[in-house]
Amino acid sequence: MLFHVRHALRYAYERPVFLEPTTVRLTPRSDPAQRLLHHQLQVTPEPSGSSRVLEPDGGEAVVLWFDTLREELTLEVDMVVRTLRENPFDWIITHPPVRGLPAAYPPGEALSLAPCLQGQGPPIAEPVRQWAAELASAVDGSATDFLMHLADTIHHGFHHIGRPDGEPMGAADTLLGRTGACRDTAILYVQACRSLGLAARFVSGYSMHHPEEVSEHELHAWAEVYLPGAGWRGYDPSLGLAVADGHVVLAASPDHHLAAPVSGRYRGTGVGSSMRYAVEVRTAESLEALQALDRDRPVCMPAPEEWISGEGTPGRDDGPRENPQAEPGG
Questions:
Q1: How many CB atoms sit inside 10 A of residue 196's CB?
Q2: pTM of the model
């Protein structure tokens, strides 16, 4: 499958501000499941400098820095990705103690996977642990059956909503309300897996599928789980499926903040900010079919009243402020 993705973000500030170094994670990784064929990032106005970097979890990012005041910042990326994994179950487990739950990894792998086994936030809530244990019991403690049962349970048993901004809800809150956006259900999936000894991490990217309640393409979120012999494998709880060639990974991390498409702050006393974004995802089976698409038409951005806002505090300089963030929403 070939994906043509265009993703645009525009930040506006009430007055000129100083932009601190900004990390842009809008470069899909190349791995056994996907290949990046084309990638063009345009930054307006041009930064003072930029550097391509390899992040702690193996993803590629671009760090931008600025030495003059700016009133706006626009990031536009155009990319073509070929997805390769037609069968999401083309693997075997090579370490038997991972087949049953709770899972146990070889010591060396467990050390490397520690952030994805333990996480860095508060302990996993007891209701999430109990719920995960019940689901595991329903499949006789089989790790592979649990992963699909968990995705299917969330897909069919929860109310899925679109929510373009805001931090993910806590896993216990999502479980209690049986409601959430894709990033909320991804966090719940990750926490449920970790509670049973499975290494899991948060993923952001794009999907050719989207839940019925989301009418337009958005940045999407799901989870990856590490299985010896299979490597990192994606599971999408909002769609109830194992990830194959219908998804494109941008970034994956045990901490969802490090899978955000853009991370950056600005300095300006009492200056508010706003952001709007647009995502366009189109797919084709061949390069010829992809080339036949109209790839030059402009990306349609939301109207100004739909911008995501970040409020300033008049008359007080309380240090750097986070730029508004478009989170995976559907």
A1: 21
A2: 0.90
